[in-house]
Amino acid sequence: MADRNASFLDRWAPRLLSVLRIVAALLYMQHGAQKLFGFLAQPPATAVPLSSFMGLAGILEFFGGLLVLLGGLFTRPVAFILCGQMAVAYFMVHAPKGFWPIGTGGDLAVLWCFTFLYLAAAGGGAWSLDRVWKREQE
Questions:
Q1: What is the tens place of the pLDDT at every residue in 64-95?
Q2: How far is it, in rounded angstroms, from Cα 82 to Cα 113?
Q3: Burial of 74 by CB count in 10 Å (0-12 exposed, 13-18 middle, 19+ buried)?
Q4: Which candidate, 27, 103, 105, 10, places its Cα nearest to that of 61?
């Protein structure tokens, strides 16, 4: 029975990687939508200037998330850039407030950073354009 469960999990791991990629991208895009369009902001807000640091963050979050979402197109390089963005956000905004991320509001930035680092290493999963593109090149 243990071998049967292992083979089931082995078969589903690449698919669940794709599910993680899709859900993470959709959630991440919401942060960009708040900054760029004032969409979903609570309380309602106006868009930030595109030439500002927050505008750049919004562009990376929305369009980087869109690239990760769209079938995992260029998942690895885009996820690596987004990982770096979250590391910068953590060290610029949250770390100066204190050591523990939970006390500085930086826990989400840390989680995003390591989620995107994992996607940069693992790729887009079974359901990704990256995987189809790689197969066609072989």
A1: 999 999 977 789 999 999 999 999 999 999 99
A2: 7
A3: middle
A4: 27
- Number of Cβ atoms within 10 Å of the Cβ of 138: 4
Encode burial over 32-47: b for 16+ CB neighbours within 10 A, e otherwise: bbbbbeeeeeeeeeeb
The answer to whether the pTM exceeds 0.85 is yes
Q: For the chain, what is the mean pLDDT? A: 91
CA distance 78 to 37: 22
Question: How would you label 78-87 residue by residue, b for 16+ Cβ within 10 Å and e otherwise?
Answer: bbbebbebbb
DSSP state of 43: S
